[in-house]
Structure to design on (350 residues):
């Protein structure tokens, strides 16, 4: 039986802890801010060490989605879910269906989608018990968000190169990509086709072989990707790659990648600015995946609309870079401010 318990957390619209012992479900759904619409964001399945670790993660992630969806221009607030489990060992169909019932219990205040540990098949299963799930392609509409995310990052990288180097394209620029997975590999293709020179790093050897054979990429160890002699560093693996240890090794003058939470601590935002490094705020540049999910939910998804929205990511970043330069402030802080302006306008209009 699905049990639920609402947690009163200041600053969050609604956080609910769900448990279903028979189905092996232990999950939290958090909606941070629903000013612009229902919370929308993926579900992450991860073997958190304890309840508080999962709660902290879902709070951080749902808050991030509020900002991402606001600047992504979709009518959704910030939401996210976590399931306490190892997706490789513990995940069962019963667990996923029980999670679907938990989503349904939120009564439209939260829409779920994929995040790490969740597959398209899981979303299909969730859709058998609730209408509040999206992110799988049907009849050429929507689908796997990774290629869209890669295209958005590529547009964002072009905008950063234009602003920082006055470059009309990525041709001749050297780009180091840390993590050539679903997003990183597609991004590598786009950079290569535009005439960029690639340096790649990954922990998965077959991905490195592929990047080398398809794009002539130079290969470096993961810990050296940040220090590669390149113009642009693109973190596309895990979060936290810009931190107090790596920042002084950074050679690139632009940081533009797909990973979430690229800055391990908030002070890295100003530290990058002070070093003359242009940082494309992660939640702005990597938003195309959730934009696709949002358009799928609202029924506005089309190839043309997606292309327009992806191009818009470059424009939004251009605006952020401009304002940051004018005001002598770091780009991450300016992005937060712009997102808050969008939400404030939404509040007024409501
Ligand atoms: P993925 O799992 O397909 O790819 C990640 C790649 O990074 C893999 O090839 C993996 O081997 C490699 N990797 C993992 N740990 C590493 C390490 N320590 N050093 C070097 N390489 C390492 O994931 P993805 O879907 O390509 O997403 C990449 C990043 O972008 C993630 O941080 C994800 O949260 C973020 N993101 C993805 C999307 C999307 O649409 N897929 C949207 C927004 C943000």
């Amino acid at each position: 039986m699905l049990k639920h318990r609402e947690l009163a957390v200041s600053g969050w619209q609604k956080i609910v802890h769900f448990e279903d012992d028979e189905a092996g479900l232990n999950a939290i759904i958090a909606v941070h801010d629903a000013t612009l619409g229902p919370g929308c964001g993926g579900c992450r399945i991860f073997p958190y060490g304890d309840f508080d670790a999962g709660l902290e993660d879902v709070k951080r992630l749902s808050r991030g989605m509020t900002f991402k969806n606001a600047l992504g221009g979709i009518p959704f607030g910030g939401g996210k879910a976590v399931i306490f489990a190892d997706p490789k060992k513990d995940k069962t169909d019963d667990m996923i269906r029980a999670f679907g019932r938990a989503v349904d219990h939120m009564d439209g205040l939260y829409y779920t989608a994929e995040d790490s540990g969740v597959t398209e098949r899981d979303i299909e299963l969730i859709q058998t018990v609730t209408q509040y799930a999206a992110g799988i392609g049907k009849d050429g509409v929507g689908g796997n968000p990774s290629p869209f995310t890669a295209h958005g990052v590529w547009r964002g990288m072009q905008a950063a190169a234009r602003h920082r180097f006055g470059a009309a394209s990525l041709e001749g620029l050297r780009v180091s990509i840390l993590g050539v997975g679903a997003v990183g590999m597609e991004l590598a293709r786009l950079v290569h086709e535009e005439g960029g020179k690639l340096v790649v790093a990954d922990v998965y050897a077959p991905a490195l072989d592929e990047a080398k054979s398809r794009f002539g990429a130079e290969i470096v160890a993961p810990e050296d990707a940040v220090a590669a002699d390149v113009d642009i560093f693109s973190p596309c693996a895990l979060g936290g790659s810009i931190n107090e240890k790596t920042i002084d090794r950074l050679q690139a003058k632009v940081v533009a990648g797909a990973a979430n939470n690229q800055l391990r601590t908030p002070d890295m935002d100003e530290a990058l600015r002070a070093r003359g490094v242009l940082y494309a705020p992660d939640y702005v540049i990597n938003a195309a995946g959730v934009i696709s999910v949002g358009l799928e939910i609202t029924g506005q998804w089309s190839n043309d609309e997606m292309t327009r929205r992806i191009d818009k990511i470059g424009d939004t970043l251009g605006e952020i870079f401009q304002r940051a330069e004018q005001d002598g402030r770091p780009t991450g802080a300016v992005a937060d401010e712009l997102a808050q302006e969008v939400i404030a306008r939404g509040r007024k209009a409501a």
About this structure: Residues 146-290+296-342 form a domain with the Rossmann fold fold (CATH 3.40.50.720).
